[in-house]
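Dear all,

This email documents one entry for the complex benchmark we are building for the journal club exercise. For each entry we list the sequence lines for every component of the assembly. Then comes the predicted three-dimensional structure of the complex as a token string, followed by one or two observations. Please use this as the template for your own entries, and keep the labels exactly as they appear.
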Amino acid sequence: MALSIGIVGLPNVGKSTLFTALTRKQVDASNYPFATIEPNVGVVPVPDARLDRLAEIVHPDRIVPAVVEFVDIAGLVKGASEGEGLGNQFLANIRETDAIVEVVRFFSDPNVIHVAGAVDPASDVDTIKTELVLADLGTLDKAIPRLEREAKRDATLAAKVELARRLFAWMEQGHRARTMELTDAERASVADLHLLTMKPMLYVANVDESQVTAELPEIDGIRPLPICAKVESELADLDAEEATAYLAELGLSEPGLNSLIRRAYELLGLMSYFTAGVQEVRAWTVRCGAKAPEAAAVIHTDFEKGFIKAETIAFADFDSLGGEAPAKAAGKLRIEGKDYVVQDGDVMHFRFNV
Ligand SMILES: Nc1nc2c(ncn2[C@@H]2O[C@H](COP(=O)(O)OP(=O)(O)OP(=O)(O)O)[C@@H](O)[C@H]2O)c(=O)[nH]1
Ligand SMILES: [Mg+2]
């Protein structure tokens, strides 16, 4: 299942421009039968040069990349938490995503109207943050009395009630839920409240063409990723050779979208391991920290149930030695058991019985 990332921001900051450029990369839907392709949803491959290298060694029939799903969400205006603009619809749309990319306008083009009258990234970020925090306060305001009633019947809920109150107090001061210190267990216990500001987030600074390689200062503790949406949409229209020349002119080694997709994938706490067979070279998505059986389950639940062991070769060894047989001959094929923590880039083959 692809995890989804909502693209949010004020109106007219370049969200759809960025989204449209992203969807030019959209994967072949037939490889991802689960993907519901809606107009505002794009399933995008995670750029990974290691896949090409594996394919060069194995010559498979097909290459299947890992994917993430981006959702283009309508612009958020002040008062959205009270139903202004597309308010409630907007909030429902982001509630369903796993992470948030916020596009912030940095570009100066006077022909493009700014809803607040002037380009002011810090103030724009603050506006969005306030709306999201207010929406979450509304959620907690409803949830706390309900939890209190339930806690009268079920004493195990007392800690959750206390935690919800603590979150409310924290967010009342204008903070996002995510910045409050919580244990993993606490975080898990409030997951069912679906707080918007608990989601991991990334800022994309939609900059002028001349700023694409700029080092931007942190906003609200997060370093924004500079991207020029206009350039990205132009790049998406060029053939490979023209695109390379244009990138060189801009001082970039790859499109900003590639960095964005990779950063989004990491933001979700995900990594890839590979299977490299003659039919298919494929990247599989797992949680960072997943053990071998959990990774196996991504391919098929039977692989987890009947898990015996995982033959594992680090990508670096597969690459430098030139494939499975030479890696094995060099003693680089490891037999890993059910407690093995999978590493990013592992080339794996699962042994199981059912
Ligand atoms: N100069 C310049 N203009 C841009 C850039 N990105 C977007 N625009 C322009 O800004 C306007 C708004 O862009 P959209 O992508 O529709 O903005 P949006 O954030 O999706 O807006 P809403 O959906 O209304 O919230 C369009 O006219 C774009 O061409 C950019 O990087 N530079
Ligand atoms: Mg739009």
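Observations: Residues 9, 11-17, 74-75, 107, 109, 112, 206, 228-230 surround guanosine-5'-triphosphate (ligand 1) (CB under 6 Å). The two ends are 23 Å apart (CA to CA).
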